[in-house]
């Protein structure tokens, strides 16, 4: 069989997952092309936390270092967005948003998620700074401060319980959590979590644009230092739409199914990081990318032997 592929593997996304896969495949002497639109999910934060050996790094420095490491093993990078993926007889074609078609034997989808925040004035501008989603990423930095938990669904209640671990001064802004029954209110009250059922209409900020609190529907104000809230998550997987991959329905939405090795329901497509696992932080995304990279290499090793045997048989 003639090899008409540009590369062995195209990786979509150069975040923690995609770069980890690129490093593994580069070190496996595979030809790798990484396409990326340069919008990693944590680009709003100045520092990353919960990352052994990399705690406190600027996400931009971390990714630049990861890219340089992958490039040192031969991985190529291109700024481009994937628009569609189609099957071919021996691999996959990736069409980019500018219409370029690139062929590979395997694909690793590592394009992450998009966070859609509630459209409240003053909220989005603090995302990753004083409007936070994950206490394991940012809880230590705001420990002991006046924290609000802004519910966007009934799961906000879980968030309110969790955030209490980092501060004794927590207000649960519960309007979008649904009715809070007496037992739940008693439990929250037992650890001094204040329930504020009035709807939040605005996040207030001072002249330096630092968060000062939230304005309520009746004009009342709650003073706060930081807010935890849950964004609406949307996987960046539109380019796979035509392939009808198996999906997992989760409380966070519908995500492409990938097993522990990153295998999807398509034998030539693997997925790693937030695109398949909305709970993954940076280390978990790195480990998923590392696993997917090594599994794709093994898959190609198997195919290389099969093709070589076929050629001998045909001779
Ligand atoms: C504000 C904030 C702060 C965070 N802080 C922390 C922290 O402190 N510690 C921690 O462990 N985790 C943190 N996280 C979580 C962390 O950002 C994610 O776990 C991690 O980015 C997931 O890695 P990923 O590689 O799956 O996706 P991403 O890092 O989001 O990378 C995906 C890449 O794919 C690209 N892309 C998207 N669509 C396409 C397309 N169609 N074609 C080509 N490329 C595409 C994007 O531009 C992006 O570069 C934070 C998240 C947020 C929102």
What does it look like?
The chain contains six helices and 19 strands. It has helices spanning 16-27, 59-72, 135-138, 156-163, 182-190, 282-314, and strands at residues 7-12, 32-36, 76-79, 82-87, 92-96, 101-109, 113-116, 131-132, 147-150, 170-173, 194-196, 200-205, 211-216, 221-223, 226-229, 232-235, 247-250, 253-256, 269-271. The strands form five sheets. Strands 1, 2, 3, 4, 5, 6 and 19 form a seven-stranded mixed beta sheet that branches. Strand 9, helix 4 (156-163) and strand 10 (170-173) form a beta-alpha-beta unit. Helix 1 packs parallel to helix 2 and helix 1 (16-27) packs parallel to helix 6. The two termini are 12 Å apart. The mean pLDDT is 96.
Main features:
315 residues, alpha/beta, seven-stranded mixed β-sheet, five-stranded parallel β-sheet, 25% helix, binds flavin-adenine dinucleotide
Short description:
The protein has 315 residues and is α/β, with parallel strands linked by helices. 25% of the residues lie in helices and 27% in strands. Strands 1, 2, 3, 4, 5, 6 and 19 form a seven-stranded mixed β-sheet that branches.
Q: Compute the gyration radius: what is it?
A: 23 Å
Number of helices: 6
Q: Taking all residues together, what is the mean pLDDT?
A: 96
Estimate what percentage of residues fall within beta strands.
25-35%
Number of strands: 19
Bound small molecules, deduplicated: flavin-adenine dinucleotide
> What class, by secondary structure content?
alpha/beta
| Helical amount | 25-40%
Please give the oligomerization state of what you see.
single chain
Largest sheet: 7 strands, mixed
What's the SSE pattern?
A: EHEHEEEEEEHEHEHEEEEEEEEEH
Overall, the morphology is: elongated
Uncertain residue segments:
none
End-to-end distance: 12 Å
């Amino acid at each position: 069989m003639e090899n008409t592929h540009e590369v062995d593997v195209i990786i979509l996304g150069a975040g923690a997952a995609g770069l980890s896969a690129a490093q593994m495949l580069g070190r496996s002497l595979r030809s790798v092309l990484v396409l990326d639109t340069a919008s990693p999910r944590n680009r709003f934060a100045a520092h990353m936390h919960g990352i052994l050996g990399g705690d406190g790094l600027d996400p931009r420095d971390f990714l630049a270092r990861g890219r340089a490491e992958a490039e040192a093993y031969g991985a190529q990078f291109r700024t481009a967005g994937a628009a569609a993926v189609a099957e071919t007889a021996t691999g996959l074609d990736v069409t980019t948003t500018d219409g370029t078609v690139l062929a590979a034997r395997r694909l690793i989808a590592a394009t992450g998620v998009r966070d859609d925040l509630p459209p409240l004035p003053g909220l989005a501008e603090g995302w990753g700074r004083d409007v936070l989603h994950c206490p394991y990423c940012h809880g230590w930095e705001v420990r002991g401060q006046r924290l609000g938990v802004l519910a966007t669904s009934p799961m906000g209640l879980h968030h309110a319980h969790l955030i209490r671990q980092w501060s004794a001064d927590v207000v649960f802004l519960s309007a979008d959590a649904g009715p809070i029954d007496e037992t739940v209110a008693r439990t929250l009250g037992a650890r001094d979590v204040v329930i504020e059922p009035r709807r939040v209409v605005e996040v207030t900020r001072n002249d330096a644009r630092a968060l000062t609190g939230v304005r309520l529907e009746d004009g009342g104000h709650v003073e706060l230092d930081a807010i935890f809230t849950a964004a609406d998550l949307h996987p960046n997987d539109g380019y796979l739409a035509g392939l009808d991959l198996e999906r997992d329905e989760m409380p966070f939405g519908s995500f492409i199914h990938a097993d522990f090795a990153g295998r999807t329901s398509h034998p030539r497509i693997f997925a790693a990081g937030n695109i398949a696992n909305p709970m993954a932080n940076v280390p978990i995304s790195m480990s998923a990318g590392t696993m997917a990279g090594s599994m794709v290499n093994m898959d190609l090793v198997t195919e290389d032997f099969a093709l070589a045997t076929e050629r001998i048989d045909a001779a």
